[in-house]
Design brief:
201 residues, mainly alpha, two-stranded antiparallel ribbon, 9 helices
């Protein structure tokens, strides 16, 4: 029963990513065009910042006519600008995949996308930024760790370091030896050991 429900949910989501225009099935989910992607197209689609900021700003009212952008927090602007970029990329893929579509048909597809894909694009952009930030943090930690190890290796390799460490190592060794010797001498004077000696005699 659960598997059937899962299949139905996947089928419904897939149907939401398809628009029928003039007897043709048009994908409005850009990732469904993956069969036609080369490496450059895949990177262009997935990485934010591939479209100029001026172009994004110019299309704000086109895809978000209901918003007053001056009232938005900077983080909201970044997410919605990323969604606008996804709208533009998707329309570009639609036009290249279906060059025979008319201007009115493309406009119809755009309007459907604005209603059905806005939340999905915003969510994808947000997750993309989180993933990118995580990768950047991991790279920074790895770089810092490598720098730290390299600095220690370089420091240990210095002749001056060897000259400075040798007396310290000798002091530690002598301190350990003296401590061990004192412990032995104390134990030899311990009445417990004397009583054992007498008992043995």
């Amino acid at each position: 029963m659960n598997s059937l429900s899962t299949v139905n949910n996947i089928s419904n989501k897939f149907q939401q990513d398809i628009v029928k225009i003039g007897g043709k099935k048009i994908f409005i989910n850009p990732f469904l065009y993956w069969r036609r992607f080369d490496e450059n197209t895949n990177r262009w689609l997935r990485e934010p910042g591939q479209i100029l900021d001026q172009e994004i700003v110019k299309n704000r009212t086109r895809f978000y006519p209901e918003l007053d952008w001056s009232l938005l927090e900077q983080e909201e602007k970044v997410i919605k600008d990323g969604a606008i970029e996804m709208f533009l990329k998707t329309l570009d893929l639609v036009c290249k995949s279906h060059p025979d579509l008319s201007a009115s048909q493309i406009l119809q597809i755009e309007r459907i996308m604005v209603v059905t894909k806005k939340n999905a694009f915003e969510k994808w952009v947000k997750n993309s930024f989180v993933k990118k930030a995580k990768i950047a943090r991991n790279k920074k930690r790895k770089l810092d760790r490598n720098r730290f190890i390299r600095a220690w290796h370089e420091w240990f390799a210095l002749e001056v370091t060897h000259q400075a460490l040798l007396p310290i190592i000798l002091i530690i060794f002598l301190s350990s030896f003296i401590g061990w010797s004192v412990g032995i001498s104390k134990n030899s004077c311990n009445p417990y050991f004397e009583s054992i000696t007498k008992y043995d005699n």
